[in-house]
Amino acid sequence: MSYIVKSILFWIFAVVFTLSIAVYQRMTGPTYPKKGSITIANKEVKYKLLRSQENTKDGVSCDAVIKIENKSKIFGGSILYKRYRTSEEWIEVGMVQNGDNIEGSLPSQPAAGKLEYRVFLKYGNENYALNVEPVVIRFTGEVPKYILLPHILFMFLAMLFSTRAGIEAIIKGKHTFNYALVTTITLFLGGIILGPIVQKYAFGAYWTGWPLGKDLTDDKTAVAFIFWIIAVYMMFRNREKRSFAIVAMVVLLAIFMIPHSMFGSELDTNTGKIETGQHQ
């Protein structure tokens, strides 16, 4: 098999692998909606409970709208909510029919502010709790698409080229250094430059990792970047030092396996300051 054919196969594997990791990180993260279903009147009712919401849209305050499909209009519903980590009384809001859905709104909160809530559906004299344990939703500031999309793209490319660089290093290919260099550049642009800008728009601070805080997203990006800087430096001096690329790839992969937004920013309702919490 020629090198070109092998390279094409390696790239296909790298793309599929990177997409799989991206989906895994997204679906296991604490901001991914909580999905499930419940049976009411012998009908399966599917639901998706939000765990992340921008607090503004085009500069206008934006509530979190919880929607449950109710085409047959056979049940009503309500939401109980309160601010997260407080002893406040639960507030009940009714859900109303809107088209094929029954909807209820959670009020917009400041950036990094959180609410915990439970959703109840009522059919006849029976009440159905969709979630026994409260779902926690975190509100973020609005991040412009021209900042967010390049950030996502560069982070994806960093993982893609990291995977390809690792494969190239394992087979002792001649392009290991080039792939490692592209990995480092895209990680720098996506994580070190655009990452803090996204953080600033979303939570009002450019950097909340070490030594300023304990934000795991910031910290893990910095760790991965350091490992790739070392790998590039070592291979710049000696192209045979491919093992450093393998180590850096493993580190970045391990970091990508950590759910996004774990131990992320959280508004302290007592002080009004943004701290580091564990988003659930």
Structure in words:
The chain is of the alpha+beta class and 280 residues long. The chain folds into two domains: 3-29 and 143-276, no CATH class; 35-140, Sandwich (Immunoglobulin-like), CATH 2.60.40. The protein has five helices and 14 strands. The strands form four sheets. Strands 3, 6, 7, 8, 9, 10, 11 and 12 form an eight-stranded mixed β-sheet that branches. Strands 1-2 form a two-stranded antiparallel sheet. Helix 1 (3-28) packs across helix 2, helix 2 (145-170) packs antiparallel against helix 3 (176-203) and helix 2 (145-170) packs across helix 5 (243-256).
Give a short overview.
The protein has 280 residues and is of the alpha+beta class.
Which short descriptors sum up this protein?
280 residues, 5 helices, elongated, alpha+beta
- Gyration radius, in Å: 23 Å
Distance between the termini: 49 Å
Helix content: 40-55%
Please describe the biggest sheet, giving its number of strands, its sense, and whether it closes into a barrel.
8 strands, mixed
Low-confidence region ranges: none
Strand fraction: 25-35%
Provide the succession of SSEs. Answer: HEEEEEEEEEEEEHHHHEE
SS elements, strand count: 14
Tell me the structural class: alpha+beta
Q: How many domains would you count in the coordinates?
A: 2
Count of helical regions: 5
Identify the overall geometry. Answer: elongated
Quote the average pLDDT.
Answer: 90
